[in-house]
Design goal:
The chain is built from 16 helices and 4 strands. The chain has helices at about 5-35, 40-45, 60-65, 75-105, 110-130, 135-155, 165-175, 180-195, 205-230, 235-240, 245-260, 260-275, 280-285, 290-295, 305-335, 340; strands spanning about 110, 165, 300, 305. It holds the Pfam family BPD_transp_1.
Length: about 350
């Protein structure tokens, strides 16, 4: 067999593998789509695959969803859109600035200062709550302010012990994603509840949920953007420094335009995490600012899971991210995200 024939057979095998993987990937989406157009009897009566061939499609699940019988669909969709876009944008902006600082500047944090912060924070909270008669909210705030002030002041002294550098700080950020999310969600709920007793309502509010998602997304943004900033040529920034250009103008005027591909990719990834997040929305919302994952999870009744309603709600939650993925793929094909892929 000739080399040309072998190459031809290899292409056919590659095409067959791609088609098989495409079928494997898209079949769940197809199944969700056709299930949303089935009646309850059509779902429990056995598997059917092709509309108008082996089952008659129905719009009952969609009419119940869009009419509000299955929950406040429009309010939930708007809340997911507002919180998702704003939290992803804020996390990308703040995380990018932090990542740039960790790449271009040298930071040193004394380990003993970190120990002082932890000891003062926990000890101050326990003293304020158990001995001074303060409520949990004020005791937590006072302890945090005192611990942060003493840690910053002690970092300027010549303290014994190891010194943590930029790589250690980055590892600390990334390590925040190693904790089980339930720990952070429960802690935030307790903190928000105490803040509500002080007159600052954060449970079931835009500010409270957005703050949680920004904090939840910062580690992944810093991790992604740090690698991208390290790949940028530093010569352009050094030339601007020779002309006495301020650091903030270098970042926004030079670095950000050069980093657009990475910023777009990071924003898309962050939006996907926030859009699909369930646990924080379950703990920190009750009605007004509930997101689409909560709506999808609530599509059941006393009879059990109603898959026709779940499929309709899930399809609505999937479509916006599919559109985002299409936009991202177009940017990738045009070569805009070549630097981010590297």
């Amino acid at each position: 067999m000739s080399v040309r024939a072998l190459k031809g057979n290899g292409r056919w095998w590659a095409l067959a593998g791609c088609l098989l993987w495409l079928t494997f990937t898209f079949f769940p989406l197809y199944w969700v789509a056709i299930t949303s157009f089935k009646t309850p009897l059509g779902v429990v009566g056995g598997p059917t695959y092709i509309p108008f061939v082996d089952f008659e499609p129905s719009l009952s699940a969609w009419s119940e969803l869009l009419s509000g019988q299955r929950g406040q669909f429009y309010n939930t969709f708007i809340a997911s859109t507002i919180v998702g876009l704003s939290a992803s944008l804020l996390a990308t902006v703040i995380g990018s600035m932090a990542a740039y600082a960790l790449v271009r500047f040298t930071f040193e944090v004394k380990l003993l200062s970190a120990v002082i912060f932890v000891v003062i924070a926990f000890g101050g909270y326990l003293i304020g709550y158990n001995f001074l008669g303060l409520r949990q909210g004020p005791s937590l705030i006072y302890a945090f302010v005192a611990a942060l002030s003493l840690a910053v002041a002690s970092s300027r002294l010549r303290l014994p012990g190891p010194v943590l550098g930029n790589n250690d700080i980055v590892f600390w950020f990334v390590s925040q994603r190693m904790f089980p999310p339930i720990v952070a969600a429960f802690a935030l709920f307790l903190m928000y509840t105490e803040m509500g007793k002080m007159g600052v309502k954060l449970v079931d509010t835009y500010v409270g949920l957005t703050f949680a998602y920004v904090a939840f997304s910062l580690p992944i943004v810093i991790w992604l953007m740090r690698d991208f900033f390290e790949a940028l040529p530093i010569e352009v920034e050094e030339a601007a420094m020779v002309d006495n250009v301020p650091s903030w103008r270098i970042f926004f005027g030079i670095v950000v335009p050069m980093s657009k591909p990475g910023l777009i990719a990071t924003f898309m990834i962050t939006l996907a995490f926030v859009w699909n997040e369930f646990l924080f929305a379950l703990f920190l919302t009750s009605s007004k600012w509930q997101t689409l994952p909560i709506l999808v999870a609530g599509q059941n009744s006393q009879r059990g899971d109603e898959w026709w309603a779940i499929s309709a709600a899930a399809l609505v939650a999937i479509i916006p991210m599919v559109i985002m993925a299409g936009i991202l793929s177009r940017l990738m094909r045009s070569g805009l995200l070549l630097g981010a892929i590297k």
